[in-house]
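Re: that chain you flagged

S.,

Sorry for the slow reply, it's been a week of failed gels. I finally had a moment to sit down with the sequence you sent. For the record, here it is as I used it:
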Amino acid sequence: MITKYLHFNEHDLSLAGELIRAGELIGFPTETVYGLGANALDEDAVKKTYAVKGRPADNPLIVHIYDKSQVYDIAADVNDYAKTVIEHVMPGPITIVLPKQGLIKGIVTAGLPSVAIRMPESTEARQFLRAAAVPVSAPSANLSGRPSPTTWQRVREDMDGRIAAVLCGAPCRVGIESTVLDLSRTEPIVLRPGAVSAEYLSELLGIHVGVLTDPTSKVNSPGIRYKHYAPKVPMVLELDDDRDKLSAYYDQKAAEGCNPVLWVQNPLRFGGRNAVGMGINAEAAAANLFETMRKLETQYDFIIASFCWRKNTLYDGPASQGVLDRLMRACGHNII
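Prediction finished late last night. Pasting the structure tokens below so you have them in one place:
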């Protein structure tokens, strides 16, 4: 297949919409990461998504919309909590899980009775979704298990020749996938942390919103049951910003013949060693996370990451739990 690289003009958006309705796959930008879009009403198109990514079929997909009214076409029960989130947080980097109507088939939801719905904040994303004129299911536009793409060039690395087209938009502002909030239960719970924090949602909804802590349980969320975001080289994670521990581990790997890199808050503390900054705060770390990971895997053969998330530290921000979640799964929970 020859992949077309399209732009945000009237002709190319119209073509992207035609391709989606014809059952093809399209890479497209959002504010979080680039998505791999398919017509959510076309079972054969959705099957292609799983096949192209190498994604397990029991891992549900998010349905993307361009207008809030579409939630009511897709969800069977839009409760008061959902209405509050729709009013105050959508469009934005959040996905809500609600009981589904029959419009969305089981292949999209991995057989679950609920559906994950998202209305992106990105103007480019909504332009594409409007041109598609159908609900669009979309995971991240990368091969399963790889770091998610936040530029169209990274989509090309994984998807060139595999999909019909990529809409070449702006780099993704947020940099990590959306917060997934399950509103299909009695009490709301965050299934996947992202840029919209559980603390903010608790305040908004007037009820404690917890965060799922057991990723092995069968839950209604896309993207939490499998190892994700992994670079091609080994990676470990340190959680205390302990200079001595990090330096000693780096020296040990170097002595073993590796070419390691420290991925840390302040690389200047590690003079004489390969060191790269993670970002000045949690939001900067999120925005650069996957792009930096993809760069590091091409330059070094061992990544030693450090992310110290404590209250009243530089990394204490809305995106901190989302960044920690991605790093934990990228390293396969290999903590030093």
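What I noticed first: The two ends are 44 Å apart (CA to CA).

Talk soon,
D.
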